[in-house]
Write the structure tokens for this entry.
Amino acid sequence: MCVLLIDDAERASLGDVFGEALALLDARGREVALAGGGSLMIPKNVRLIITLDGGTSAGRATLAKLMRSCAVLQVDGDGEELRRLHGDLPFVDALLDLRRAIDAEIDDPERRLPLGFFLRASLPAELPDVWRTEVEPFLHAALLKEPSRAAAFRWEVVARRLGLPDVPPRSG
């Protein structure tokens, strides 16, 4: 089986990203002639996992397009998936509180902090790098006009808030 993971699909035009392949999802396993000539087949063993925020206007439009060809699994935005995956970790509730604080700071329902950043099997080991390389850039983009507001959510501050050690970033 081959898996293609596309994160935050609502941030791109599916037609531009997939082109005619989007229409071919229904024809998986069959060769289909392309409008520009030639043909294409998406093998039956290809699975797509696409994440998006269905609560945003762009997310709802993207979801409507995908529902024609894909099964949809709704991941609860309130953190239940994170609790199911990591409920035994002592910092889960503090992390969810922090996520709510970040969403309040951004104050834009279209730009909430994705829960998917934290849905990792090895979250305790990966969290410092995930925070530095995914969450902090997300915050800087969301708070572009006031980058000083993101300072309260730098890993060094967050690690203390979560009761975790401030480990140095992994090298290369």
Summary: Strands lie at 2-6, 32-33, 39-40, 46-50. The chain has two domains: 2-67, 80-162. The mean pLDDT is 81.
